[in-house]
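Researcher: Predict the fold of Major facilitator superfamily (MFS) profile domain-containing protein.
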Amino acid sequence: MLALSFCLHPWATAVRYKEINPQAAERITILIIALQMEEDQSATYSVDDALLSSGFGRFQILILSYAGVGLIAEAMEMMLLSFVGPSVQLEWKLSAHQESMITSIVFVGMLIGAYSWGVVSDNYGRRRGFLFTAIVTSGAGFLSAFAPNYVSLISLRFLVGVGLGGGPVLGSWFLEFVPAPTRGTWMVVFSAFWTVGTIFEASLAWTVMPKFGWRWLLALSSVPSFVLLLFYVITPESPRFLCMKGRIAEAMDVLEKMARLNNVQLPSGNLVSDKNIELDELSTSESTTLLADAEENDTIVEEKGSSLGGLSIAKLLSPKLIRATLLLWMAFFGNAFSYYGIVLLTSELSNGNRICAKEEVESIRSNDASLYKNVFISSFAEIPGSILSAMIVDRIGRKLSMASMLFTSCVFLFPLVFSRTDMLTRISLFGARLCISASFTIVYIYAPEIYPTSVRTTGIGVASSVGRIGGILCPLVAVALVHSCQQTTAILLFELVIFLSGLAVSFFPFETKGRRLNDTEVVMN
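Model: Structure tokens for Major facilitator superfamily (MFS) profile domain-containing protein follow.
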């Protein structure tokens, strides 16, 4: 009875003893304090616990702003392809194939860059990854404005693509600072910066191109990448990455800065890696011997992965991740092919209709004005797309959100199979771009959530590379088929790709809504 009273009310017990024996009460008080100090020292918390206690505050807003500028830079460099291609074709008398190569070569560079920067980021840090991407993108983007001929322009735009391939690194970096319960919503907010970039680029082209030409547009579009370099020195490394690499003191320093800026307290105890927590959870269902083997094997894989990026690919195709990885590649291919195809169709359908109807364009300037107007209007479709994805991603989940957006995009494009009047084309492409941009936003939320920290940016980078293959092929379809008066074939091909992407999303193995980010793959099956 005395022991039960002590467990339930230790301080009351000490007071009761003081009435009887003051020396005994003092010893009990000292014992209680020592036990509490020992408990505080043995208490641990993870990065997820620190993010939950911190919430989304001023620190995360600064991280969002920096990552958002990077996304604006990527969007501007991609959107300018809709304007530069036709202008360069007229100035240098290029063929349709040469014009399409100006766009496709950027995606070839992104195909290489997406994987390369992902491996760099997973092994050497998120900051180092997006530093190199900003240097390459800003330098090659600015120099391309002075390209004297077609070959030099193609070469420099290829380097721009290599730099743009590191775009997912910034997304992963931002994601690893966001608390799990609001991760979907804030990733949609982050993706909205892409919309800002597309609208700003269309406005810039409308203002600059008629008076100064495409070279000024290329030069001005590289400015946001230089902004990333300007503020790089104040950016923190991801604490999740630091923990995974065993750099606990550095991770603590980042989290303490976050807590001070958000005016909150970190949880009591010592910071530990989520990897250790997940392995401890695994030990409840497996024997100590098996756990030791798992830790040893994981350490070996990590060490080898640091020296050879190819083993990261093997991990993505491991039995626990292969289904999710292959389906994710299909979804990225379909989203990229469809999104950039719809952007190009905005200009190419109207041009193709004129060519096939044998209508003469009154002047180059009036044709350009129509192009800027159509792209500018269609760019606004991404605003309701971002709002819609923010409303549904944390309510109905990632899988259902993506699938519904892809299938709805098919519905919007279907009327163009039978008729392509100017008004119907604008309405259909506006609705299709709204839905496909929402789907593209959500797939970039889902992708980082299915991979462990050790291969997260590699996984997104490889998936993004597969998407870039879609980006390489879509200009050949949008330009070649439309210019050869096969608009119906082009539309049906986009319909098929979008529909198959929706099916792939429907077969994703698990939903990630509300799940914490993992540092190991032990809970991924």
